[in-house]
Structure formats: structure tokens, C-alpha cells
Design goal:
With 374 residues, this protein is an alpha/beta fold. It has 14 helices and eleven strands.
Length: 374
């Protein structure tokens, strides 16, 4: 059986840290907490779980803090979590089993990161992260923001899922944006990955023109990870739509097809583009096209799961309703309702479309009867 050190960096997480630590208590063999300046009860709460609590003076560098936490690890493998991450009971059991059965020759364990859930707890947004690494190989974190590790094979793609979500939602922060802009002010180099995430921060702060320029710069480097390239096309299109440059937005979406086979997330954006133009025939084409696509099985990038099933089904229903084909609209909405039986939108649509189809059938029957009588 392998042993695991949990290494965390935290700050002012009194509302989240207990849930996180409870979910791994008794599974990990060591808990290391690096605090970057808490002023609440975070450290006190952590003290009930471990005595390995260390202070780190914040220097606007997440990688530096994570590497500092890794330096204290003593077990075979190091697992990282953020304070607002946790394991559901089924994933806790999977981690216990992994400890018992894992080949010690594995260098890196990838785990799904579920960062979006619907009201029923179904995962709507996820991607994979390098989550657990062999301590002896001394892998290091890179980048001051949106940090990552360069690891080496053998890599295990685990079915363990880390769930993310704050118990108490914080107000939007400009911390990450300030880190990037301080680097630029100090004439420090931004890697292609840094440019990509800087662009995302600009977009999230409604600085769409600047964000578009940075996304274009990132794509022009031709050095990005394929999944980041696809995401950049998607985000760039959103920026251009906000700037009322519709054709450029559509061109960005089609540009994503250069990097890989069409993704449902992109095709949904194309469908919505034509819906906004009231071109429901073309919109329906793209939403139906999604239903022919196969969700990538070996994809570590961003996946919006509803875009591969529920969304195209319910939007097909909307499009065919607008086109007056109520029978076809009802067919798609029925499928959407099977995907999400608790969807209030699909339930409302179902009643509306059933009435439309019934009314249409009655009207047709009445017309036929009139023709016969004549």
C-alpha cells in the first residue's frame, strides 16, 4: 500500500476547510497546511486535524506557495487540494482502493475536477488535473497563477473525482489580474499559458477589447495546448460578440475546428449565434449536428457535459417550435426531459408542445372533415 501526504495552501477559508479535511481524514497519511496570511479561524480549525501548519509570506506566486508545501511532505505520494475542494463518499472509497492497489511505479495520477454542478448534483463542468505525484521525483509547480506541474509517465488516469465548490461564495476578486498586470508592469515575461489565462482574467473583468487582443496573441504563438487553443477560440468569440463584431466571433468558433474535431461546446455557441439572428433553420442544423458527435473519452480539457446532450435537445425543440414543426419539437423536448426529468424548462415545454401538437392535429382533422362534407 502506498502512503499519501496531503499538501494544501490556504487563506481565510474557515467556511470551507472543515468539509475538505473531513472528506480525506483517515485516507491520507499526513496533512500539511501552508497558510498564506489568514486573519480568520482557518489555522485554528486546521489544528484539529494536523500539527503540520506552516506560514508562508505571500509573494503573489501560487507555485512558490505550493512548492513550499510540497517540501514538507514525507510520504510516497503528494496529493493537493484547495480548501473548497472535497471528496464525495464514493470518491473517498475510490481513493482508499487506489492506495491499496496502485502500482508504485506510477508517477502521476490524473483525477477529474468537477467545478460545476446542477441543482440535482450532476456534474455539468469538469476537466482533469495532475492531482497526485510521486514525492521522490520532486515535481515542481510552475506559473504564478493557474499553476501546473510538468510530470512524466507512467501516468494513471483515475476515475476519482474531486468536487469543487465554496460553501460561502466570495465576491469576485481581481487578485489574479493584479498579479499578471504587476508582472507586465515589471516587464516580466508571460509564457503562452500565462497569456491565455491573463486573457481570461481580462474577459472576466469585462475588458473585452484587451482580452481579445491577448487571446489573439496566444493563438498566434501556436504554442498552446490543444485544449487551451479550443477554449481560447470559444472565449475570443464571446469577446467579439460583446464588442458587436459578430462575423469575427463566428470566424473564431469555426477556427476551433483547426485544432481538433468539432466540440459540442463550440457548436452550441454557433447554434446560439444563429438563434440570435432568428435563423432557426441553421441553428437547428448545428444543434442536431451535436447529437451526432461522440464526447471525447480521453480529454483532459474543459467539458460542459450538458452541451453534449440536454442543451442541443432542448434548443432543437425551441428551433422547431419557432419553425412551426411542433411534432418534431415535441420529439426533441421529450428526449431532453429524459436527460433531465427535473428540468422545469423541459417540463413547461412539454406541456406547451403537447397542446400545440394536439391543437394542430385537431385542426387538420377538422379541415379533412370539411373537405369530405364538401
Amino acid at each position: 500500500m502506498v502512503s499519501i501526504s496531503l499538501a494544501m495552501i490556504v487563506k481565510d477559508e474557515e467556511n470551507n476547510i472543515k468539509r475538505c479535511l473531513d472528506s480525506v481524514l483517515g485516507v491520507v497519511d499526513e496533512i500539511i497546511i501552508v497558510d498564506t496570511g489568514s486573519t480568520d479561524q482557518t489555522k485554528k480549525i486546521c489544528s484539529f486535524y494536523t500539527d503540520k501548519i506552516y506560514d508562508f509570506k505571500w509573494i503573489d506566486d501560487f507555485s512558490a506557495a505550493r512548492n513550499f508545501s510540497y517540501d514538507f511532505a514525507t510520504m510516497d505520494y503528494i496529493l493537493w487540494l484547495d480548501a473548497d475542494d472535497y471528496l464525495l463518499p464514493e470518491d473517498r472509497e475510490k481513493l482508499i482502493k487506489l492506495k491499496e492497489t496502485m502500482d508504485p511505479g506510477i508517477n502521476t495520477v490524473m483525477m477529474k475536477y468537477a467545478t460545476g454542478l446542477d441543482l440535482q448534483g450532476n456534474v455539468t463542468f469538469s476537466y482533469y488535473r495532475e492531482r497526485m505525484t510521486k514525492r521522490a521525483l520532486k515535481f515542481r509547480w510552475n506559473e504564478p497563477v493557474h499553476e501546473y506541474m510538468l510530470t512524466i509517465e507512467p501516468i494513471l488516469e483515475s476515475d476519482i473525482c474531486i468536487t469543487h465548490g465554496k460553501i460561502q461564495t466570495d465576491k469576485s476578486s481581481d487578485r489574479n489580474l493584479q498579479i499578471y498586470e504587476n508582472k507586465i508592469k515589471n516587464k516580466e515575461f508571460l509564457s503562452p499559458r500565462g497569456v491565455f489565462y491573463y486573457a481570461r482574467e481580462l474577459k472576466d473583468h469585462d475588458r473585452f477589447l484587451e482580452a481579445a487582443g491577448q487571446f489573439e496573441l496566444f493563438l498566434d504563438t501556436d504554442m498552446g495546448w490543444v485544449e487551451d487553443n479550443i477554449s481560447a477560440c470559444s472565449e475570443l468569440a464571446k469577446c467579439y460578440l460583446m464588442l458587436n463584431q459578430d462575423k469575427r466571433a463566428l470566424a473564431c468558433l469555426f477556427k476551433s475546428f483547426i485544432y481538433s474535431t468539432p466540440r459540442a461546446e463550440i457548436c452550441c455557441q454557433i447554434g446560439y449565434y444563429y438563434q440570435e439572428k432568428n435563423d432557426y433553420k441553421t441553428a437547428a442544423y448545428w444543434f442536431e449536428f451535436i447529437l451526432t458527435l461522440k464526447k471525447p473519452e480521453k480529454c483532459w480539457g474543459f467539458l460542459q457535459h450538458d452541451c453534449w446532450s440536454y442543451i442541443p435537445l432542448i434548443e432543437c425543440a425551441v428551433c422547431y417550435d419557432r419553425l412551426g414543426n411542433y411534432k418534431k419539437a415535441l420529439k426533441f423536448n421529450t428526449r431532453a426531459l429524459k436527460e433531465k426529468p427535473d428540468s422545469l424548462s423541459a417540463q413547461k415545454n412539454q406541456r406547451y408542445l403537447q397542446d400545440k401538437v394536439t391543437s394542430q392535429q385537431y385542426k387538420k382533422k377538422s379541415q379533412n372533415q370539411k373537405i369530405d362534407s364538401d
